[in-house]
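Tip: read the tokens left to right.
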């Protein structure tokens, strides 16, 4: 399978068979006339969301997804992805993720697509604490990410000196948690709910190769 990408225009071929007689076959992929994906983003109070990054991804039927360069909303909250191929097999998705205060937004897009009107929602807060299962010590500086149940990345934060992490951009949903360079002590990935009041505690096993291992060992006394 070959692919073509011209800014926001994606195209793929049928599967390509490589043989010893023709290890590098010629592939004919043509760029056609695309259709723009346009829309407007508003803050919860209805004012234009200015300079908000918008990400367009294309997922072909086979292989991994391809992401276009982010564009930013203008002074009126408008965005415009020009020349998007409506006939590409697979699907497109549009996503918005801000570092704080607002819930992430994601939607799958199918042609024919209309002009989109997106109203951001205020993010919900949730806290948790990461402890080393062996020593009970807090794990500092650990990157914790929240994903929905389709494993889409939704938010990211870092534990503080007490091992506490704090999300401010979650929705009213349950999320799976992933921890960089750490292994959960439980058999299943832990979960957290946007807006929950209790501070959840999670225990981890720290591999010897992890950057957190020496820090925990140094705390033993």
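Filled-in amino acids:
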């Amino acid at each position: 399978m070959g692919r073509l990408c011209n800014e926001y225009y994606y195209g793929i071929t049928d599967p390509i068979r490589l043989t010893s007689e023709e290890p590098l076959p010629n592939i004919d992929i043509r760029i056609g006339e695309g259709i723009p994906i346009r829309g407007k983003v508003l803050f919860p109070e209805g004012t234009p969301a200015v300079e908000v990054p918008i990400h367009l991804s294309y997922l072909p039927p086979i292989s991994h997804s391809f992401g276009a360069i982010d564009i930013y909303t203008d002074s009126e909250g408008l965005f415009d992805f020009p020349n998007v191929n409506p006939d590409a097999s697979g699907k497109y998705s549009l996503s918005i993720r801000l570092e704080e205060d607002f819930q992430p937004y994601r939607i799958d897009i199918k042609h024919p697509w209309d002009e989109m009107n997106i109203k951001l929602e205020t993010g919900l807060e949730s806290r948790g604490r990461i402890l080393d299962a062996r020593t009970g010590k807090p794990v500092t500086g650990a990157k914790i990410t929240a994903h929905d149940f389709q494993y889409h990345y939704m938010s990211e934060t870092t534990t503080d000196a007490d091992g506490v992490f704090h999300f401010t951009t979650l929705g009213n949903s349950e999320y799976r948690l992933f921890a960089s360079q750490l292994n959960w002590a439980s058999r299943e990935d832990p979960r957290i709910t946007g807006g929950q009041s209790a501070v959840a505690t999670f225990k981890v096993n720290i591999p010897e190769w992890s950057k957190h291992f020496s820090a925990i060992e140094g705390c033993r006394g």
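The longest helix spans residues 211-219. The mean pLDDT is 86.
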